[in-house]
Prior knowledge:
325 residues, alpha/beta, six-stranded mixed beta sheet, five-stranded mixed beta sheet, 12 helices, 13 strands, globular
Amino acid sequence: MRPIAVALAASLCLAAPAANAQEVIRAVTSLPAPLEFTKGFLRFVDRVNAAGEGVVRIDVVGGPEVIPPTQQQTAIRRGVIDMQYGPSSYYLGEVPEANAWAGSTISAMEGREKGGFAIMEEVYADRLNAKLLAQVDGGVTFHIYLTKAPAMTDDGAVDLAGLRLRSVPIYREFFAAQGATPVSIPVPEVYTALERGAVDGAGWPLPGIQDLSWDRFLTHRIDPPFFQTDITVMMNLDRWNSLSQAAKDIIAAEAKAYEKISYDDFQRIIAETDKAVREAGMTIITMEGAAAEAYLDSAFNTPWEKLAESDSPHTEALRAIYYTR
């Protein structure tokens, strides 16, 4: 176990609440503090702490500087931390069913209503020893951003052949199918990679481009957008089971409510950010007609093909619920 994980485990033991005392949940985020996503999670924490005063409190102990994003699901499974917030794409190898969220064409609220969330609760409990609390910050789609104007094909499609694009597992195959070379770079290192010309672009949702100052280098955006964010809040299942019923009720109610609150917040943030990057001079390249449809087919086929290849028993049920395109 990493030294920081040992330290966190020790601190958890020291911080164990006495009987009938306010229960304290220690949380980490997998995304950097400046991002609107992380700020949103802190708003959720504030809501829980206000509603749970005297009963339960969430303490955020840090982000990717505390535990690397790709190790946080292991920390949850082992109980090193109590709660985690971040994209499920960091642990697709362990939870391939999370591909359904990236490939979703409906909102988190619809997914919960149609039974998709209940399926994912079972999956998270089985695969990560985790209590899935919410799929948050939904309705946020992804774009490919480039440092310069791309070549175009005769039929109006963007030609990405030979370009090096910063990628994560959720869209690695999509980028490769477009002829690009996916490059794995942690978020804090992307700015330097762009500055040095190590990559020609990146995949990223609209919110956050300016927060991270990537828009200094990423001057062109490709439309239409694809995928959806796959961000969740989860807890170690044993820690969840140890909570009082009052604490569970507060957290569960706030988590469900925050799915809608965060969705609405990000629709506003998306509109504001789109306006801001356009005014700052970003060039928007919009594919239309058959070129746009082929581009989106290539994108959305990726997560569903990956889920099918995983032999998950939930593939067909999740596709029937989440994919309406």
